[in-house]
User: What shape does this take?
Amino acid sequence: MAHFINLVLPIPLERNFTYSVTTQEAALLKPGMRVSVPFGKSKIYTGIVLNVHTNAPEAYEAKEIHQILDDVPIVTEIQLKHWQWIADYYMCTLGEVVRSALPNAFLLESETLVLRNTETEVNEQDLKDDEFLVYEALQHQSVLKVHEVAAIVDRKNILPILNRLLEKNVIKLKEQVFEQYKPKLVKYIRLGTSYMSDDALETLLDSLTLAPKQSQVVLALFQLQAITKKPIASVELEQASNSSKAVIKSLVQKEILEEYTIRVDRVDFDATQEVSNAKELNEYQEQALNNIRKAFDENKVTLLKGVTSSGKTEVYVKLIEACLEQKKQVLYLLPEIALTTQLISRLQEYFGEKIAIYHSKYNVQERVEVWNNVLLAKHKAQIVIGARSALFLPFSDLGLLLVDEEHESSFKQFDPAPRYHARDAAIVLGSLHASKILLGSATPSVETYHNVKMGKYGYAEITRRYGNVSMPDIELVDIKEAQRKRRMKGHFSERLLEEMNDALEAGEQIILFQNRRGYAPVLECLTCGHTPQCPNCDVSLTYHQFRKQLRCHYCGHHSALPESCFACGSADLDTKGFGTQQVEQEVIKLFPEAKVDRMDLDTTRGKHAYEKIITRFEQQELDILIGTQMLTKGLDFRNVSLVGVMNADSLLNFPDYRAHERSFQLLTQVAGRSGRTKKRGKVIIQTYNPYHQILKQVTTEEYERMFAEQVYEREQFKYPPANRIIKITFKHKNYNVLNEAADWFCSALKTNFGGNVLGPEYPPVARIRNQYLKHVLVKMDKKESAVRTKQNIKRIEKSFNAIAMYRSVRVIYNVDHI
Assistant: This one.
């Protein structure tokens, strides 16, 4: 009987594919295992087995698989169910979810190799110069990779050259699958087996009297073995004996020493540090913990709303302890990588080496190791801390799922697909594992708090800061009035400078928040008013003074700072607006004695960049830290007494229905970094409109009032939480084709859904990377079936793709757009 397998391939196609396998292979294969398969003319892809069956495909003849890559499944059945839910709910393909979920090292793809054709005679006179270069290289090297050919001919597009060489039978092409993951092997040294006895050892030391360096190495090995009972690493021995690799190598060649390797994880936390007991909870934390446990008993997703610095993490620690006692795994989700740095050191105090970390700053090799540790439920992966991608790990028995700072928009993935929301996907993952789910925030999202009000979610609250520290004193400063009276120094009001002086004199630290990186968002000619624009996007270039560059924050295009205006030739250029670089420069001039640093996307590109800046600030090596919204998210600095918000209006005046909610959350969170120990903190918010409703609510901490106003407004205009929304984006390089296509699709949507369709409309930045964009918003009533609505939209897309002119227009779905 013929056997077949259904596979999901990591490509954006709706269908799964069927391949034929032998009876022996069918007995070995299980859902979740990887196999490499031929796809298309010659490409080889890695697929995940969905099921094994005996039904031959009707539409095509099933190809045979290339090879089986695993002995056991690397993806669990619960993962496959979860990924299928993500694909269905967020209107993407299962292949796109697999591509996003699996570490790249697991997705083996074939690489095209170029070989010399030895079966034909080649007339060198017939070859062009670039063809001859490739032919000559193949005389010296039997195989060339595609990127090597590109380097030889010094061209990026080498396909025409290879095609010409194929036509002339000079070369052959071959596809080869290569493994990306290589385990890390550490070299260790021990004494040779023939020198284990005391007599042999004495003879050895006597024989080495004329080789003092070699004798020193052997003696150093004995000393290390006496001190530690662990294996001695080659590097360790080299340092202890103060010798070189060559000396150790010569002793290994003489078989006096033996060299062996041990496989180790690339990320390993120090198991030697002592684990301390969790802190005792105060009465408010204890009450919140009891409320959480009651809600968990009712199997409810629970929200913990605790003011900033109320000690939510200590409550989490108690819940983690209880979960680990039941021998279950814990997933702790955070919105930003920056947060993991501080949290790891805090949790390590309590849980030692039971913690694993997973986020995008980890390289491919490290991610594979974390994946395997979680899959095997190892001791070192009982608690997983990570950003949104940690959701995709292969948990076998997930007992507790924590989503900290659940209101953060960073939990939403924007590009590429799947465009999922980690908080919502985590709730589904938790329900599949039947685990406890806790969402934590000082300023919960309107949707989450609405679910609490409706009785869908459980609720616990901490209203006091830990140690009964007072909430910060928030003051609004009218910079419009200050500018009119000429009382500003650069972008600093007199009030902010006064408070900064006081804080520095008292030896306290300061955080300055400006939600825009770079030096200035606009460079303008004072003669003709021209502003340099990005050639690929409809946006002005941002001036970065550090590199004397103009940069586009959408596509990365950059050019040198012009000496004169491109339009009129005038040398009279000036900047408008300000970013973190300009704030940093002004602070250095105003406070030359203070130690200043900046934390934004430009300064945190390295793997350990976040860690270095946060550690320096924690250890009080810095006085003033300037940053973007990275600074606002749950970081705990004990010596910060002042927080300055440089300009609150840029947050409020944003064309988005969530602008006011986000402003309230961001300003409350950044204010929460101040005064976290004994002394009451101070927050200065500079604004042109100190009478704005949201700013007043921030100063008086009126979350309930903000929530009630937002819900009322959104109910009037049919936005979440009253309605669900799907944003459909159309992308094309041709302006006219895009307009026609968007109009056609939108009219079909309006026929189906009536007045609940807005658009098509151009976004504020209507062209990015030379692709024009147009948006359509579909509002779904909560009572309507979301599944049926999505099916109708997909049906319209099929008709849309049947029109040849529109087929090249890219249609992107963003479900629950935020």
